[in-house]
Specification:
Length: 339
């Protein structure tokens, strides 16, 4: 059947018709709101590289911000810690009284099971060197080199995950791309009795240029070298399936692709390969800040572009979207999609 019998424009004639037949549904409950919590401050600190985003003290300001998210239909948060002190091995991240641990306790007391609490598990923002693993010196033939040691890092992040579970987290989210990280954390959680605490794995995390504003937010950029020896090569897509498969075998409950916008094809590949697993996509800081900067210049309509991007991520196959736009997007969705 073809024109004139078939006229696709009939299904686009009005906003009401377009909404009725839309293939992709975007809801505030699809979002996880990332939040930066910082020790040693008493009021929110603006993040220059991320307009509209703040570092929050553990206290009433944080509670008010999370309450605002819940009121617009967002059910989940992802916490990142900015500690007062840092060390070589990131052991500060394992403290029972750490900034993320205290934030989890506060939010659990305040909101109970109304809120789903995810915590980032990585040592980069807890170390003096800014790497996601512990650097060690190794001999390589006639020379000595510095590498990020995989296995000693697993011990630290496993302890970190357990401390988050003890505080009341629903899910821990290891993000360092260390081999075996899911198995190490799952075994540690189960050994300590936290069999009900889930793992959202940063299973497919690329060595991306889109992370710059985030690193400014936590002052977590590497002090030497880069992260390309453990984060994925942006040229690779099939490798994403290998990484995701390993994490599934090791016990991940939710998979993630990060970043989102430049990797929509990878989101589709992973969802097709693992349809039975919830898939998250991280709409990262650089993607957020580009939209904010262009909107401030008046070059784009922030509302339309943001909702178009989030819809594209959902359409690609993401079940969950981690986004700094979450609260604004949830409010705009209440008004109806602009397309």
């Amino acid at each position: 059947m073809s024109f004139p019998a078939l006229r696709p424009r009939r299904l686009r004639a009005t906003k009401a018709i377009r909404d009725l037949v839309a293939e992709t549904k975007l809801e505030p409950s699809d979002f996880i709101l990332p939040i930066f919590v910082k020790e040693g401050i008493d009021k929110p600190e603006p993040i220059e590289a991320m307009p509209g985003q703040y570092r929050y003290p553990v206290g009433e300001h944080l509670v008010r911000f999370v309450r605002e998210a819940l009121e617009v239909g967002i059910k989940a948060v992802l916490l990142f810690g900015y500690p007062r002190d840092r060390d070589e091995k990131g052991l500060v991240a394992t403290r029972r009284e750490g900034v993320v641990q205290e934030a989890v306790r506060l939010l659990r007391r305040e909101f109970g099971d109304e809120l789903v609490i995810f915590t980032d598990v990585c040592i980069c923002n807890y170390t003096v060197h800014g790497h996601c693993g512990i650097p060690v010196r190794r001999r390589k033939g006639p020379v000595e080199i510095t590498i990020v040691d995989n296995d000693s890092t697993l011990e630290v992040i496993a302890k970190m995950a357990v401390s988050h579970a003890e505080a009341g987290a629903d899910f821990v989210a290891p993000s360092g791309m260390m081999d075996g990280m899911i198995r190490a954390i799952r075994e540690a959680l189960d050994r300590e009795g936290f069999t009900d605490v889930g793992i959202m794995s940063y299973a497919v995390k690329y060595a991306s240029g889109f992370y710059g504003p985030f690193r400014e937010a936590l002052h977590s950029a590497p002090r030497f070298g880069d992260r390309r020896s453990y984060q994925m090569d942006p040229r690779n897509a099939a490798e994403a399936l290998k990484e995701a498969r390993l994490d599934v075998e090791e016990g991940a409950d939710i998979l993630m692709v990060k970043p989102a916008l430049a990797y929509l094809d990878v989101i589709s590949l992973v969802k097709e390969a693992f349809p039975d697993y919830p898939l998250a996509a991280y709409n990262v800081s650089g993607e957020y800040s580009m939209v904010k900067a262009a909107a401030e210049k008046g070059w784009i309509d922030e509302r339309i572009v943001t909702l178009e991007i989030l819809t594209a991520i959902k359409r690609a196959g993401a079940d969950i979207i981690i986004t700094y736009h979450a609260i604004d997007a949830a409010k705009w969705l209440r008004e109806g999609l602009p397309f």
